[in-house]
Amino acid sequence: MYTPQLELDDIQGDMLVGMQKNAELFLFFKITDARRFKMLMRQYVVGQVTNARTTVERERIIEARKQGRPRSTGPWLGLNLGFTCEGLKHLLGARRPKLDPAFERGAADPATVARLNDPPTGEWLHDFTSDRIDGVFLLAGPERDFVAIHESSLRRRLGAAVKVVYAETGMVRPGREKGHEHFGFTDNISQPGIRGLTRPSRPSTEPDQGLPGQALVWPGEFLLGYPAQNPKHPDRPGPVVPLPASWAKNGSYMVFRRFEQRVPEFRRFVTAQAARLGIYPELLAARVVGRWRSGAPLELMPLEDNRWLGANPMRNNDFSYAGDLFQRACPYAAHIRKANPRDDPPGGMAETRTHRIIRRSIPFGPEVQPGETVTRHRRGLFFVCYQASIERQFEFIQSRYSNSPDFVTGKKRPDTGAPVTPGFDPIIGQNREGGGRFMDEPAPNYPYGNRRTMLEIPEEFVVLTGAAYFFMPSIKALRNLVN
């Protein structure tokens, strides 16, 4: 089987590897003078865009540091950018080639809002919706002040050619909470591997996995112009999807969603419901997510946490759901089982790999303060993901997995054979018009038992407050777009 050759010098750096960061600023802008914007982009910006080869090299330096082979480097700046469909129209004109249908529709379109059960745009953050968004700059670095200095320089250079619509900075959480989102769970564990980039950790025995349990996915699922995944065979390539325009190769679609997390309310809900179910709160929280806060998956540790396993990348993702036919270890509706069902769907791993996304999220907002029993400060997650088809990947996961109480279909009760309705993803699942949600079997039946329980979830603890779809062009395409 051949190995695809990725053009790392031409691919923006955040997509395949991720820009190294403790802080990341999202600068959403409107183009007010297209001619001047192009000139200033040529002069100051395009040459500074971080490519994938740079992020790969930076990862190698980080790994060398971990192994006690430090290399002296200065602070790293990451700079990437993308455009909405309106932004491309301003750069290329109304007769430009049309790209992905979902991208053309946009995240704020009523059809998108209805498809995803999102809250109405009138309930989104006012500043985010105050004007048209044509593009976004992503500035990543080691600390907030470093990123702010480069933001100031960028704004000064672009001047009146753009209007900043909204800007906000995300930060990795402090101290022991580094790598965790605000509910306290380790994030960013089950990323897909990418053929042609991710090296197998066990090449002789598991050549189709990166780290154990990390399936290698064909790059055409994330980048335009490469072989996509074969929907009938988990390890074989499918066709190369025709490019909508020659300059679209090495580009990717980015989904941005601003989620506010109601942390005190989530904690209080878990504590109260655990008491009702007769289990301890940490177990219920783990059953809601599918992992313990450490990252240890329920499939491997169904009744108690194991921090060593959770922190071990050779163990914490190495599992499937094939042996958990009756959700005794992990509920069917648990967040990670919904978002990445692995071998659960009827089409197995081959089907699941055609819906994978690469996530590049970062928390924002202050830590929960002592005595903050009701949310008083805006905090949450800037959710970012990359894919080759927004409709087939992100929107499919949200609408057909997380929002569907019937997914995964075909499950039966172990005692009666009656069909099971798994319920909503209790973290990001959304019911139409903000209706209540439920989750089947929040209390475990591990390893045997037939106790029936239901978790009623009348309120949302993760609330969407802004969203946008972007096309992230290749660096060669960026040069062409501004010439």
Features:
5-stranded antiparallel β-sheet, alpha+beta, 18% strand, 4-stranded antiparallel β-sheet, 15 strands, 14 helices, 25% helix
Description:
This protein is an alpha+beta fold and 483 residues long. The chain has a domain at 259-465. It is 25% helix and 18% strand. The chain has 14 helices and 15 strands. Strands 9, 10, 11, 12 and 15 form a 5-stranded antiparallel β-sheet that branches. A hairpin with a 7-residue loop joins β7 (227-229) and β8 (237-240). α8 packs across α9 (281-289). The longest helix has 15 residues, at 52-66.
Fold blueprint:
Blueprint: H1 13-16, E1 23-31, H2 34-45, H3 52-66, E2 78-83, H4 85-92, H5 101-105, H6 110-116, E3 135-141, H7 144-158, E4 162-171, E5 193-194, E6 216-217, E7 227-229, E8 237-240, E9 252-261, H8 263-277, H9 281-289, H10 307-310, H11 335-339, H12 348-353, E10 358-359, E11 362-364, E12 380-387, H13 394-402, E13 437-440, E14 454-457, E15 462-472, H14 475-481
Parallel strand pairs: 5-6
Antiparallel strand pairs: 1-3, 1-4, 2-3, 7-8, 9-12, 9-15, 10-12, 11-12, 13-14
